[in-house]
Amino acid sequence: MSLKNDFLLNPNYLHLNHGSFGACPKPIFEDYQRWQLALERNPVQFFVHDGNEQLHKSKTALAEYINCSPDDIVMTMNPSYAINIIAKSLDLSRWDEVLATNHEYGALDRTWDYYCKKAGAKYVQQEIPIPLSSKEEFIEEFWKGYTHKTKAIFISHITSMTATIFPVKEICERAKELGLITIVDGAHVPAHIPLDLAELEADIYTGACHKWMLTPKGSSFLYVKKEIQDQFDPLLISWGFNAEVPGKSKFLDYHQLQGTRDYSAFLTVPAALKYLKENDWRSVSAKCKQDILNNYESLCDVFDTKPIVPVTSEFLGQICSIPVPINDPLALKNILYNDYKIEVPVFNLREHVFLRLSAQAYVEQEDIDYLKASLEEIVSKGLIKLNP
């Protein structure tokens, strides 16, 4: 049975961009509105008592799902907020280096660039080749960026721009041997590919619940290993700083108690997990992943390009990035949206241009076929100019 009708997306458009902001099914959105109404009916009780109790329940459900202690995670609006907490307080000194890749999310490249420059440190974006041929090649190329100045690793678990699953576990293991702190951007991971924080052993991990886990927008988490939690100051100084009635830890007080804000989206995690369970999401996700594997090469064929990673589940989940040999990605995006009613991202990553396809429960094979036919028509009619 199709789950397309569960989603609130405008039916006049074909939505193939789940990866950017997610999409929330009706049952979860209704739970969200229920919490918002509870807040408005009695704001004092909500902020002082009920909301905090429900937040703990939500965090406990999330912690069980990703296998960590609820006391080691705080909820944040998005992964960018979470990484700003870390980058601002990371004890960087002059000449230190933070090693990343040249595939990281642009907003976080800017975050690290800002704080590294402020400290006199260096943000190293090690080049990972496109196309990438194997996990072993990635690991070899990544560690070429390591020097005696490297203090921390920052790496995506699934990249936003190139839609690639990186071998993060192997990177964390090697980093631990070298005495480096590991910071993982897992924005695209929860409910997309398996996540076990105890097994992964990253020092710091952030993920979005509002992408593939289907909660409303503005619901993410930051995990920090207990031994280093006290190193990180809050971005916003509020009631949790030098709390009159301290909670379980300074980590929770600093980052969770931040005054008046509507955190109803945080409270929907149990409803989201319930929805995933009731709809056998492992099977739903597996079908979407297979759709990506089945269609990636044929979509590349439209532009006479090749996949940028091996077409296997080791590198691909429910998203893929198709190389497009054009100079004006915005022109193609606008044509697809305005003339064909397709919402799909087309963007630059340095010298590359990609069209990124997301397959979610509301996307059928006929939708992908329509995207391909539309692209073929755009190319055949010369509506965009392909590079020779």
What is the fold's blueprint, element by element?
Blueprint lengths: L13 E2 L2 H4 L4 H16 L1 H24 L6 E4 L2 H11 L7 E5 L4 H14 L2 E5 L8 H9 L6 E7 L11 H11 L2 E6 L10 H4 L3 E5 L11 E5 L25 H7 L12 H10 L2 H22 L16 E5 L5 H12 L1 E2 L2 E4 L2 E7 L6 H16 L8
Parallel strand pairs: 1-10, 3-4, 3-5, 5-6, 6-7
Antiparallel strand pairs: 2-8, 7-8, 9-12, 11-12
Description:
This protein folds into 2 domains: 28-275, Type I PLP-dependent aspartate aminotransferase-like (Major domain) (Aspartate Aminotransferase, domain 2, 3-Layer(aba) Sandwich); 280-380, Aspartate Aminotransferase, domain 1. The protein has helices at 18-21, 26-41, 43-66, 79-89, 106-119, 135-143, 168-178, 197-200, 250-256, 269-278, 281-302, 329-340, 365-380; strands spanning 14-15, 73-76, 97-101, 122-126, 150-156, 181-186, 204-208, 220-224, 319-323, 342-343, 346-349, 352-358. It starts with 13 loop residues before the first strand and ends in an 8-residue tail after the last helix. It is globular, with a radius of gyration of 21 Å. It is an alpha/beta fold. Helix 2 (26-41) runs antiparallel to helix 3. The mean pLDDT is 96. It has a 7-stranded mixed beta sheet, sandwiched between helices. It has a 3-stranded antiparallel beta sheet with strand order 9-12-11.
